[in-house]
Design brief:
The protein is of the alpha/beta class and about 250 residues long. It has one domain: Rossmann fold, CATH 3.40.50. About 60% of the residues lie in helices and about 5% in strands. A 4-stranded parallel sheet has the order 2-1-3-4, sandwiched between helices. The N and C termini lie far apart (about 50 Å).
Length: about 250
Amino acid sequence: MRQELRLRLKNNPVVYPAYVIASQLRDPGVTVSTRICAPWKDLVLDGYQRSANSFSYNLVHRFFPDLRIVHHTHSVATLKAALLFKIPSIILIRDPIDAIVSDLIMYQRPDVGYSVESYIVYYEFVKQHIEQFELLTFDAVTHHPAILLERVAALAGVPPVDLSVIDMQQEVEAVFDTLKKHTQDVAKGETFRRIPIPDEHRTEMKESLKKTLSESPRMPAAADLYRRLSARTVSPSNEKVLETLHG
């Protein structure tokens, strides 16, 4: 019942700001100004938990520090507000097995069913409004980060990054260092659970959870959503979408 109420709150753009404020009271690490979508925002950069949200935001912030970006909301309420205010939006998407298992481990969530349903509700809304969102996969962002920077510049209407003078590997490593430091500052105890980059300890835990998750009755629906949306993402392998974007 509590999880169902939480999902409803995260889907309602009217009450969602109050939910964010209440979340900050429980967790000072929650930043209200970046999690509430408003007309003056420049961009929404969002996705289901554990879909390269932290990596993507921190990379974009390094190159476009003045952009007012809504991020880390993981909520349909944000997407509804983005459509209402006509704010350009990049939606991150990751294979549901990997995203949900990673989320279960990081936050030690006990309810697999809730996590699966949250994934479905979020991306079902994205699918219904697919023409108004731009999608990037976890793999595209983490293996080809230049695509993310290119799309941010185009959607936000700012000068693009001159990639010819950028050492992208060095920039990625700097982002990882930032994420590690932030996690070590806020995490208590098992820090490896919270660092949003690959970790061998989590890898072992993931394998044991994947079997349980694969047996969830709603996983086929989540997997089908991912398959359908992946065909509409911007990636080096999706030539049709890239051709459309570049004319």
